[in-house]
Amino acid sequence: MSATNLNNATVLVIGAGIMGAGIAQVAAQAGHSVMLFDMREGAALEAKEKLSASLNALVAKGKLGADAVAQTLSRISAIGNLQEAAAAGLVVEAIVEKLEAKRGLFQQLEQIISADCILATNTSSISVTAIANGLLHPARLVGMHFFNPVPLMKLVEVVSGLQTEAAVANAIFALSQTWGKVAVHARSTPGFIVNRIARPYYAETLALLQEQAATPTVLDACLRAVGFRMGPCELMDLIGHDTNFSVTQSVYEANFFDKRYSPSLVQREMVDGGLLGRKSGQGFYSYAADATRPTVAAAQAMQMPIAKTLWLHGRGPLADALQAACERALALVPTAAPALLRDESSDWIGLEIGGCQLRMTDGRCASQLGAEVAVFDLPLQTTQDTVLAWAPSSRASAAWTAQAEQCLQALGFNPQRVADTPGLVVARSVAMLINEAADAVHQGVCNEAAADAAMKLGVNYPAGPFEWLSSWGAVPVCQLLDALDAFYRGERYRASPLLRQRTWQD
Question: Is residue 428 one of the residues assigned to a domain?
């Protein structure tokens, strides 16, 4: 393509819904002349009027300048016929998420626009290669996937199909940066980066619900406690279970029914029953006007159990953080505080009190590890009253069960007892997010930096999957996945080859 600099291009946005209007706004704010078109007569003009109302409301609140808003709106023209768009240098399509509709639109456009005009699709899941099939110039089609709401969300996935010319992808990458976005390159595979890597965040919680391991309230609280802005259940309620289930089905089918992406029976039943979340008034939670959202109770302040000696096992950052928490807890014991000793040669992280073990999960159930054993979840954060899943062995005595919970409370956690399930909640979810990201990089979908940026900016994760991997370590992540794989005996928890290779370096 000769048109590799799009800074002064006239932009045609097709589709005047929430996404299309947002893209038009961002392009106009960056100084472009923008044409907005929609197949439904009058929809483009309605979208501009709504945009004008929302921007002027921000002016009234003092959040935007009146002159800047007037200039932005003056650059946007609602057009009623695609023939008026012949001068466009960039087309951004944001219509219905259907392959034939998108492909047909671009084939129609090729009869109108110049040979140098770049075509971009805002598809979130459809193959860019498939959309380009049948175009006269497939090399100029590229994915430009924005996230909602477009003016606020920083990420743009620049998705290359098999025939996308590198200069085209690079031009869209540079333009996205000019528009104030953070762009990441991705190869056109099912789900691209974000929608692919994010699947386990929903899938592991749905699997735990199917096993009756915990309530939606507890599962959400555990994952919010480590920095996720919303728990999986409340997030699925927000997205809509019909939408979330449809995306999962699409990724599952596109990956030739790989068990890693299997849809959930729990979610299918909710969709069948019309329990779609906020849009229907009922999902995992009720959204009726008088509904009260259930919450986990606050933790009780407790002292460390009485013992002569407290052994801390393990090494590494997580063991160091546990030691610091122990030292804080022991400093509050008024008299006869137990001595804190450490054994860094142990192959597990946790505490030993009078021969009983409180172990950080390695993927195995507490009942696999012994009688007087309890396991606790991955403590990615150790702030006061941090919600933390835990489970005692089915053979544990009532005395040790109570003592284990007391110990976690003394360490500053808000322990939430769940079923003795492998990997508990946070550990298995984060491990699977890491694993999916590792497979994406291994298969050339993106690089590690793009995976981290995409997940932090596209879905507001507290850290990127490779940042988690760096702090946790490839060996324990693989061990946890292997334990899950051995327990469930299926394909779902197989470790990525890239992750397996990393264990040789640790």
Answer: no
* Contacts of residue 153, Cβ cutoff 8 Å, sequence gap at least 6: 146, 147, 457, 458
Instruction: Give the pairing of strands 90-93 and 76-78.
Output: unpaired
Which whole number is the average pLDDT over 128-139?
A: 97
Among the candidates 216, 249, 272, a domain finishes at 272
Residues 474 and 492 reside in one and the same domain: yes
157 catalytic? Reply is yes
Give phi and psi for 311, each to the nearest 5: -95, 130
- The stretch 438-457 carries a mean pLDDT of 97
**206 within a domain of the structure (yes/no):** yes
Is 442 found in the same domain as 388? no
- As a residue count, the chain comes to 506
pLDDT > 70 in the chain, percent:
98
Contact 227, 304 (CB under 8 A): no
Q: Which of 32, 137, 145, 313 is catalytic?
A: 145
Claim to verify: residue 203 and residue 68 sit in the same structural domain: no
- The one-letter amino acid code at 504 reads W
List 33, 77, 124, 429, catalytic entry: 124
DSSP conformational letter for 286: B
Helix (H, G, I), strand (E, B) or coil at 493: coil
Does residue 1 register a pLDDT over 70? no
Do 209 and 346 sit in the same domain of this protein?
no
Would residue 124 show up in a list of annotated catalytic residues for this protein? Answer: yes
Q: Residue 104: helix, strand or coil by DSSP?
A: helix
Indicate if 41 and 158 belong to the same structural domain.
yes
By the 8 A CB rule, do 196 and 210 touch?
A: no
At residue 257, the pLDDT reads 94
Name the nearest CA neighbour of 81 among 35, 125, 140: 35
Report yes or no: 359 and 376 within 8 Å, Cβ to Cβ: yes
Residue 424 buriedness (CB in 10 A; 0-12 / 13-18 / 19+): buried
pLDDT tens readout for residues 289-327: 999 989 998 888 888 877 778 899 999 989 999 999 998
Where among 188, 219, 246 does a domain terminate? 188
Cα–Cα separations (whole angstroms), residue 434 to 284, 448, 470: 26, 11, 10
Domain assignment of residue 388, given as a range: 309-417
Phi then psi dihedrals of residue 42, to 5 deg: 85, -10
Is 137 catalytic? The answer is: no
We report the CATH number of the domain holding residue 200 as 1.10.1040.50
Among candidate residues 195, 250, 264, 435, the one labeled active-site is: 195
- 252 and 148 co-located in one domain: no
Is 284 contained in some domain? no
Provide the sign of the torsion angle of the four alpha carbons 22, 28, 34, 35, taken in this order. positive
SS3 breakdown of the chain: % helix, strand, coil, rounded to 5?
A: 45, 15, 40
Q: Residue 142 belongs to what H/E stretch?
A: strand 141-146
Question: Number of folded domains in the chain?
Answer: 4
The answer as to whether 109 is a domain residue is: yes
What is the distance between the alpha carbons of residues 132 and 129, in angstroms, rounded to a whole number? Answer: 5
Q: What is the mean pLDDT of residues 2-11?
A: 82
